[in-house]
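User: Hey, quick favor. My workstation is busy. Could you predict this chain's structure for me?
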Amino acid sequence: MTSLNRRRSIKAAALAGLLATAGAGTAYAYWSAAGGGSGSAAAGTMQAVTVDALVASDSPKTTLYPGGSADVVLRLTNPNPYPVQVYGVTANGPAAPDAAHPGCTTTGVRFTGPAAPLSPATYVAANSSALITLPGAATMDTTSLAACQGATFSVPVTAEVRK
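Assistant: No problem, here it is.
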């Protein structure tokens, strides 16, 4: 082999080795590269679901009388962009008669709501309101005064809702 060919062979071998080493280094860097940084997210806050008194079109189907029970009808309004489950409803103070019955000082009315969770499961759709009827949830004992006849009672309650 001539010296010119030998030099070319050595240069070619050196170049091939250099390219192989450079390629391996690039491959290693590609597979072992790591990055760092930060991200963030914010959790939304559930808006309060409200319980409103009945309006004229929400009339209950049963009425109270001493020794009896009646349905409690609730209008729940959900301002959230997702549906909520009405998990439970509990009393939140004494029942009060309407203003037209000022002599009804002893109402005898009690809220005896259902156990949580409500069964069947009850939901209020996103950005809407719904009527919920709790069968037999109001009772009137025999201590109620005659002045309570014909009264409509406000029964303060707290509704527990869950997403």
